[in-house]
Design a protein that fits this description.
Keywords: Membrane, Transmembrane, Transmembrane helix. By secondary structure, the protein is mainly alpha-helical. It has one domain. It has one helix and no strands. It is rod-shaped. It starts with 20 loop residues before the first helix and ends with a helix. The protein binds zinc ion.
Length: 63
């Protein structure tokens, strides 16, 4: 997230500076969303790997 470019509607300062409670709340919210938004593609790739591994096991057993 490029939250460092966001300007606060309350104090008109960059949110990343955390000058007012609104800034700090937005900054914490955006920082908390960061890891979660990055987790979804990783979880998808992990799920894909598990699926491929399961298919490979089934193919080995049937062959
Ligand atoms: Zn602010």
């Amino acid at each position: 997230m490029t939250y460092d470019r966001l300007v606060c509607a309350n104090c008109a300062a960059p949110v990343s500076q955390g000058r007012c409670p609104v800034c700090r709340a937005n900054r914490e919210r955006l920082q908390q969303e960061g890891p979660f938004s990055g987790l979804n593609p990783v979880a998808l790739v992990a799920l894909l790997v598990v699926l491929v591994a399961a298919l490979a096991l089934v193919a080995q057993q049937t062959a």
